[in-house]
Amino acid sequence: MPQQTAGRILSIQSHVTFGYVGGKAAVFPLQCLGYDVDVVNTVNFSNHSGYGRFGGARATAAELAKLFELMEQNGLLLCERLLTGRHMIYWWMSRYAHSIVGYVPGAEALAAVKDLASKMKQKNPELIYLLDPVLGDAGRLYVSPECIPIYREALQYSSVITPNWFEVEVLTDTRITDLASLRKALRVLHEDYHVPNVVISSIPLKAWLRAALPPAAQPTDTDSTDADFLACISSSTDAASTSTVHARCVPCLPGYFSGVGDLFSALVLGHFQPAPSVPSSASAEAGAEQETPLAHAVAHALSKTHALLTLTHEHAAGLPEADRLPTDEELDAREPERKVRRMRGRELRLIQGQDVLRGAAGTEYFRMVPWGGFWDEP
Asked: Which of 342, 345, 337, 343 is nearest to 314 (CA)?
């Protein structure tokens, strides 16, 4: 018998010819999980911007809208269903059960993607729509400020979002400096923007966060500093309750890697199966404890992403010394090839790690830990 696929995903993300960021970091992992993936490239660049030298074409709003229109005309975006009964009724729904959106260049192009999300969600309310609001990182915007209100409007169509801490701050207009501000930001996303599942993909482990986290979510290495770790937080809610929050710290690997957020978001979508609850994959550790579908997906995404980063780091460490030089902006500016060699050696090892992606290789499992009492006010 032919092998059944896990479903069909529409991926709307950036594309690079060389390397693994954007869709190049997302599509192959989703295919390894059994999904058919149809790809819309929002940019077509030579390589990612970390090389210093890069270029190519950016899709315009008109080009994206025309592409979506042609897909719809050819029956590739929507599919016809026949309801039987006393009368035969034809109706149309989204052909896709899943969709993922990453980097989109410019406000007008982003608006075209948002309009498509609205149409797909209207035709199929059960669409699992993962939005990775690629705004920036470490206090710096990657996109024009005009994109911010469009992302905020697009949040209502999402099933899952995967921003980093800075993107959460931008979307909610909330500086995250303590537990109270973290609660406020999640309330804004859940209550004001009606996002049911929020993943803060990475947040620096500051002293206030370490003190607030459940003990089982904190680093076990007492000799390490907070700077050696990032925290990942997931929060799931429904109309009848406050959210259920989980968290976990993961160790940072030294050096600069690109495409990590794109890979992580794809793996979250690939493992996300809405259901009341699923048994913990770490049953020996957690006993009869149940985890939310989001926490289950995030745990697998964290574990596989960290394993692939470890594989990439080990590969980079084995390169000739000329290809693993430390970051030095002044030297990089004088000798562009210096940065190019370093970036080239740190491209994600997705093909070499495909057994990790498929779950055929053993990896350290980063179980998401329930954050009991998260919403308890002092």
From this structure: 345
Q: How far apart are CA 170 and CA 134, in angstroms?
A: 11
pLDDT (tens digit, 9 = 90+) per residue, 7-37? Answer: 899 999 999 999 999 999 999 999 999 999 9
| Domain at 7-370: CATH code | 3.40.1190.20
How far apart CA 262 and CA 253 sit, in angstroms, is 17
Under DSSP, is residue 24 helix (H, G, I), strand (E, B) or coil?
helix
CA–CA dist 313, 332 (Å, integer): 21
318: left (phi over 0), alpha (psi -120 to 50) or beta: alpha
What residue has token string 């060389």? 18
Q: Tokens for 260, please give them.
A: 């990590």
Edge-to-edge order in the sheet of strand 56-58: 56-58, 35-45, 7-16, 98-101, 128-131, 160-161, 197-204, 229-238, 241-251, 369-370
pTM for the structure as a whole: 0.91
Q: Assess whether 262 carries a catalytic annotation.
A: yes
Annotated domain spans of the chain: 7-370
Catalytic residue among 262, 323, 328, 332: 262
| CB environment 284-297: b (16+ within 10 A), e (fewer) | eebeeeebbbbbbb
Please provide residue 364's backbone torsions phi and psi, each rounded to the nearest 5 degrees.
Answer: -65, 130
Question: Which residue reads 């939005």 in tokens?
Answer: 131
Residue 307 bridge partners (DSSP): none
